[in-house]
Structure formats: C-alpha cells, structure tokens
Amino acid sequence: MLFQTTKKQEDLRKKVREFAESEVKPIAFLLDKENEFPSEAIAKFADMGMMGLPYPKEYGGAGADVLSYAIAVEELSRVDGGTGVILSAHVSLGSYPIFAFGNEEQKQKYLTPLAKGEKLGAFGLTEPNAGSDAGGTETTAVLEGDHYILNGGKIFITNAPVADTYVVFASTNPDAGTHGISAFIVEKGWEGFTFGDHYDKMGIRSSSTAELIFNNVKVPKENLLGKEGQGFKIAMATLDGGRIGIAAQALGIAQGAYEHALEYAKERIQFGKPIAQQQAISFKLADMATKLRCARFLVYSAAELKEAHEPYGMESAMAKQYTSDICLEVVNDALQIFGGSGYLKGMEVERAYRDAKICTIYEGTNEIQRVVIASHIIGKMKK
Ligand code: CAA
Fold first, then answer.
1. Peptide bond preceding 161 in cis form (omega within 30 of 0)
2. How far is CA 178 from each of CA 130, 169, 183, 338, rounded to the nearest angstrom?
3. Pocket of ligand 1, candidates 202, 233, 246, 380: which has the most ligand atoms within 8 Å of its Cβ, to mutate?
C-alpha cells in the first residue's frame, strides 16, 4: 500500500510533538530516575482530548482515526517510551475491549470517562503461569447470585496501580480451556482488589507496572464483558490492536534515538571532520533511516487496515515484531555513534536503549508474533 498521511494527521503530530517536547522531555530523565508516573503531564494530555483519540465523540472520544492515535503514541515515545506506553495501554487495552465488546450501559459508564481522560484504563491478562500461553489463565470467577467472585492475580500490568478501570480475564469454566475464559470490568477500590509493589523495571520507568491481587472480589454480573466464555477471543482481538500501539511506541523510541545520533554525528569532530562524514558512521545512519522508513510503513498500514475494518491481525503482528526488532538495532547504533558519552546516565540515548527492549517482550513476545504471522500464512500449527 502506498502511504500518505493527511494534513489533519500531521497537524495532530505537531500538536503532540509540541506537548511532548515541552511537557514530557524536560522531566523524562527524572521520571526514569525516580520510577515516577507523569501524573501532571497525563492530566494535561487528557485536557487536550488525547486520551480517547480513536473513539467516537458520543462516548467522550476525539473521533479521530487509528493512525492519529498511533502517531500520538509515536510522538510521546520519541521523547519518552514510558509515557508512550501509558497512552497505548489506556487506549488499546483498557478502553478498546469496552468499546468493541461492551453493551451500551457499559460504554456509557466506563468507556466515556476513559475516553474523556477522566479515568485511566488497564488490562489484566498475564499471570505467572499464563504469559505467552495466555489461555492458561488460573484466575477464577464463580457466579454466586448477582455477582461473580473473583480470585487469583495478574502480573506485569501496565498502568497499575494508577488506573481506575481494569479489564480482567478469568476462567468461569476451568474445564473448557480457552472457551472457559471470560472478561470482566473491575474497578479499583472494590473490596478484596489490591495491588502488589510497583515493579522496579529496567526501562519505561515513567510507566507504572504492578501486580493485581483478587481475593474474593465481588464483580457485579453486569460487569461481564461480552458473553461467558468469550473472554479469550476478546483478549486476542484486543491484542491485535494493542500491537499497533506497541509498534508505534517502538517506532517513536527508535526515531528519537536516530535524531539524537544524527545531530551528534554532524557536530562531533574526529580525524578533522564530523563523524557523519566518515563512511562507518554515515552507513550506520543510512541503515537506521531505511529501517525506520520500513517500520513506519508497516505500522501506519496496519493502523489503516484497522481503521478500514479490514483484517489486520497479521499486519499488526508484523508491525510489532519488525518495528521492535529494528528499534533495538537503531538504538544500539545510536548509542554506538555517541560512543562513551552515550553510555552515561542522563543521556537520552542511554534511556532509549533501556526503554527499547520491552517492546520485543510485551503484548506478545516477538517469538509469539512469529507464531501469529505463521498461523496466518500457513494455518494453525498442530498442538
Ligand atoms: N482474534 C479473535 N479470535 C482469536 C484470535 C484473534 N486474533 N486469535 C485466536 N483466536 C481464537 C481462535 O480462533 C480459537 O478459537 P476456536 O477455539 O473457537 O477455534 C481460540 O481463540 C484459541 O486460539 P488458539 O488455539 O490459536 O490459541 P492458543 O492457546 O494456541 O494461543 C497465542 C494463541 C497467539 C499464542 C496467544 O496465546 C497469544 O497471543 N499469546 C500471547 C499473549 C500476549 O500477547 N500477552 C500480552 C499481555 S498484555 C501486555 O503485555 C500489555 C502490556 O504490558 C503493555
């Protein structure tokens, strides 16, 4: 597909870039150092109407397209990968399942405040024994009268404990495998719903990540999302879209590191000329630019397919896998161009190097992305 962004999309990029440069970049070093969530910046971003970009205005969203949302994640991540994933997890994982599978009442009650940015969303799928094998969910939900009783826990949950609303997956019929998993909307503050410690991560340290603990949590029956047993498909469909967000995050992290390296290479003089004029460095920059361009096509075209309601699961897996793989290569080359000074704390490229790695791991490891891509092109492998 030939690709051309619209003026509206580029105007949005400019707006988010200005915000990222003025509100996030100056504090990014401290957020990383202190493992601190950018509450004020996210509140300002919400005031700009950015937390529900792809959702209809009738539900408090901005009524923009999927690509505009991807561009917003890219631009935040260009200055800080952690801030980028806060938006991605909120829009793609915390809000999308309610938008796509919720009934009208659930959309009014939960999607609207999420899309307006009054509340923050999160997604609880991963467990100690259900990581790549998401169907191995051990958290249970047992129907008792008007409530499901939720027991178990989730690990590595982005936006926890800051988020207000959690889409949580639990088994309502442990004998039925993936067909026994159901999805629920769970609110922070409900009795028995607590959090583990905020993880001390290698990168994306401005984003908050914690464990969810459910101890006999009473979830009203009306908070079942979709039908009983539909949860695994809801999770998989949600992740198809979520992977566009992570691909956009990886694109932004790589773009930021590339720009820093390019600028530095033009200024840094060695052997009597800027290192950008030395072939060893100019070839690196050429490869970085080429990889970024390929990745951008993949990410934007996956977003366009989703927007057009065409199948996009394979394309989003390709975008996520390729972009996060080249993100690692690009930040590695960027740091190499900086040499010893890139290895120092406080250098953006050092933070980007640490932020980049997670993109090959979460929302499905890149090995799982290849499973997804292969199952689209070959058919599902026999178990
Ligand atoms: N959309 C809708 N339905 C889907 C689907 C999709 N994309 N993919 C699979 N399904 C359906 C299948 O059609 C199948 O349905 P039937 O049984 O009715 O035929 C059912 O789901 C089971 O499918 P599989 O047999 O293919 O499932 P599996 O157990 O082999 O698992 C998998 C497939 C792709 C490996 C899946 O487990 C997976 O995606 N794992 C990775 C999990 C993951 O990405 N976790 C990320 C957590 S969130 C996170 O990381 C967020 C963050 O921090 C920012």
1. yes
2. 12, 11, 12, 48
3. 233
Note the ipTM here.
0.98
pLDDT digits (tens, 9 = 90+) for 270-328: 999 999 999 999 999 999 999 999 999 999 999 999 999 999 999 999 999 999 999 99
From ligand 1's centre to the CA of 254, what distance in Å? 28
Kind of pairing between the strands at 165-171 and 121-124: parallel
The count of C-alpha atoms lying within 13 angstroms of the C-alpha of 156, restricted to the half-sphere facing its C-beta, is 15
Closest residue by CA, ligand 1 atom 22: 178
pTM given for the model: 0.97
Distance 196 CA to ligand 1 centre (A): 26
> How far is Cα of residue 211 from the mean position of the Cα atoms in its chain?
17
Is 311 near ligand 1, meaning CB less than 6 Å away?
no
Contact 256, 250 (CB under 8 A): no
Query: For residue 270, what are its two tokens?
Result: 């060695």
C-alpha 24/C-alpha 79 separation (Å) is 7
pLDDT digits (tens, 9 = 90+) for 151-190: 999 999 999 999 999 999 999 999 999 999 999 999 999 9
Q: How far apart are CA 53 and CA 9, in angstroms?
A: 11
Kindly list the catalytic residues. 363
139 sits in which H/E element: none
What is the separation, in whole angstroms, between the first and last Cα of the chain? 35
Q: Rounded to the nearest whole angstrom, what is the distance from the C-alpha of residue 364 to the centroid of ligand 1?
A: 9
Q: What is the DSSP string of 260-307?
A: HHHHHHHH-EETTEEGGGSHHHHHHHHHHHHHHHHHHHHHHHHHHHHH
> Closest Cα to atom 1, ligand 1: which residue?
237
Report the alpha-carbon angle 369-375-377, nearest 5: 105
Nearest to 81 by CA among 167, 199, 202: 202
SS3 assignment, position 99: helix
**CB-based contacts of 365: which residues, under 8 Å, 6+ apart?**
132
The CA distance from 164 to 186, in Å, is 9
